[in-house]
Specification:
It comes from Marinomonas alcarazii. The chain is of the alpha+beta class. It folds into five domains: 181 residues, 2-Layer Sandwich (Beta-Lactamase); 86 residues, Beta-Lactamase (2-Layer Sandwich), CATH 3.30.450; 164 residues, 3-Layer(aba) Sandwich (Rossmann fold), CATH 3.40.50.300; 80 residues, Helicase, Ruva Protein, domain 3; 39 residues. 38% of the residues lie in helices and 14% in strands. The chain has 26 helices and 19 strands. The strands form five sheets. A five-stranded antiparallel β-sheet has the order 2-1-5-4-3, with helices on both faces.
Length: 671
Amino acid sequence: MQDEEEQKQQKNAAESKVIDPSSETNLTQTHKERIQASWYRCEQFGLDHSSRPDFATLPKGTLNDLVDQHRSLLETTENEVLPYYENILSNSACMIVLADRQGHVLNTWGQPRFGSAAQHGLVGGNQWTEMGVGTNAIGTALITGEAIQVGRDEHFLRANRFMVGSASPIYNTKNDLVGVLDISSDAYLPQDHTFGMVKLMSLSVENRLIFSAFQQEHFILSFNTNVVSLDSHWSGILVLDENGTIVSANRRAEVVLARDLALLNINQVFDIEMREIKHHPFSLPMKLIAMGRYQFYVKVIPPVQQIMRIPDFRQRADYIAPSQPEVIVMNEKNPPKEKIKKAESPSSAAIPDNVIPLSELQHGDDRVERLVRQAHKIMEKDIPILIHGETGAGKEIFVRSLHYHSSRSKEMLVAVNCAAIPAELVESELFGYEKGAFTGAQNRGSIGLIRRAHHGTLFLDEIGEMPMAVQSRLLRVLQERVVTPLGSTEAFPVDIKLISATNRILKEEVKEGRFRQDLYYRISGLNIELPALRERTDKAELIRYLHERLRKEEPGPALSSDMLELLVRHPWPGNMRQLAHVLKVGMAMADEEELEEWHLPDDFFDDLDAMGQVDDSASSKAASEQDEPLEDLIPRLLSEFKGNVSQTAKTAGVSRNTVYKYAKLKDENEE
């Protein structure tokens, strides 16, 4: 009874204040609120306090592949960070765990007092997510993106209440979450120092990743309020190119300086020029003023590889290139009068792994091939692009590919979802603001998204959702090519390639008075229609291609011809986004077995049912062959298979969600 009452209290508290972990408001949650929200999520996953942990253990071969993918993270943690804490950890009965961003344990160090690996589950290949293991330090840190300590009785599953877990996420140089560092120890040992230590260790890993990525050819500045702490892991770190532009920074630097540091020049942060940094003795710390008011000690770490660079005056802004010489080709077939201009072919820049090459955006659809060719050509012209297409059709994927195959690829692509920003914040987010420009404005001000896209590409998705007042200001920016932040009288020039996208018919929006006509004609240079997935003639090849890309990210089962046929028949109302979701869920459920229909989510078959194409699906066959109703069948199978949800779902011909649903109904009826 006590557990039931405790569960109801946790649920009521969580329901009254459930906060989206991905939102900024998550940072204001108290520790108690985060635990309550986690318990509520566990209930939604169909767990109860007596559930057994489902670690979804990876096969040994898959784990080896995963370890190889994270070799740099593992080596950095083991060789460059853990030795600093060896003395402290050797006196504690605890286990250090490194997990990837999906919660899979990559490696462990230390000797716990809480039993064998089979008992505690902290072994390589086990997955510690909230869905399978309930509230736990690793899984909850992954969902919230924040460090957290989960006490003995704060674990949702009783099976995990033998320990205390302290976990902190690890972010790479692109600010992407790449893993979690965890310290798990006996629940009856003192834990005062553990939480602070795991946060410090994760910062240490992040700092070493920055040094590994940039130390060869970049200047690195370490700064702190105390000169003796310059080499500590709590110091702020800035990475500078030879011109003094900040190309990377650690989280500590952004917290201490309370400013967006991306692509600022060092003279905008400290009272020093880059030429002074280059000529300053590297072993001698400097005392500098930051933001005009804060005093810091700064240490300069020069590039390991000193590169001799010859001055190139052509890089000056006022440089005008001379006209290209003309080459006269003389032979018997071409008379001397014929002249051919010598042209330089631009070098193709390497594109990131998460960007699809232009040539792979289409797989036989003539319509898509034509619009890709048109858009690629227009990217080098001062002509805006307007993309029409349904939600999830791949507009942002298309834009990312265009950007990284253009001459602007070395600069930023800034993607703005106009529908996702609250109407009252759109103006300040786009155009920036001075400090104190309005109530609630950050003290440090904001550069704004348009200025951040300077020399790069600005992608305004769902532009039809933009408020009328903001449309007027955007039109002025596009006409005058300058941005004036809120609360400022200073105008900043901007050079952007504008790409807009919408799932609305903007001409009708103009007629209804919801979209400015002058702005419509300013953004609609090249109009292209990105076809829905169901309309594409290369659907089968596209599904194969996406499936193979997902298998490269995480090993999964092959696609049989029957499964491909089923996927091709689907109407895909959610387009590419829905396809990727279905494939990911199916591959995760199959766990390297052959991908079968019961591995796919229920809503996949709901769409097929709606169009009358699933009369012969696995779930339909199971329902027709079984005389026993699901509310009786599923509890019976769960009992036979000793609570194995996957085996129950496969035998019943339903999804895991359906198993959870009927199992929960049974529990409620018994109560």
